[in-house]
Design a protein that fits this description.
Helix content is about 85%, strand content about 0%. The longest helix has about 60 residues. The protein is built from 4 helices and no strands. It has about 110 residues and is mainly alpha-helical.
């Protein structure tokens, strides 16, 4: 099995001279590519490079502004939630203190009666 594979590899990798018309075919193919007309997209891009560059710059600018706006909104939301949490804590502390004051006042009334 390995001998068969080795023989196949040797045959496939042996040096072979190219046919006599190989150079002429390569040169003809290269010249054919040079003579070929560019596609419509190339002609479109060629005449509108400045407009495309400006459009791309505008798109990047709008995307950056949108990202900055979103970041500002997220930060504002975070501050609002922190303020809400502080307010809730302050109201809870006030409620506890008012309850204590109410008990003290109630105890004082009972003693005065």
């Amino acid at each position: 099995m390995m001998d068969n594979l080795d023989n196949q590899l040797k045959r496939a990798l042996t040096r072979k001279d190219p046919p006599p018309d190989f150079t002429a075919k390569v040169i003809a193919r290269i010249q054919g590519r040079e003579a070929k007309q560019p596609g419509w997209w190339f002609l479109f891009l060629q005449g509108h490079r400045a407009a495309l560059a400006a459009g791309l710059a505008g798109l990047i600018l709008v995307g950056g502004a949108g990202a900055a706006y979103h970041q500002r909104q997220v930060e504002q939301q975070r501050r609002a939630e922190a303020a809400r949490d502080q307010l809730m804590q302050a109201l809870q502390i006030t409620s506890v203190q008012l309850s204590r004051i109410g008990r003290v006042l109630a105890t004082g009334r009972e003693k005065s009666q």
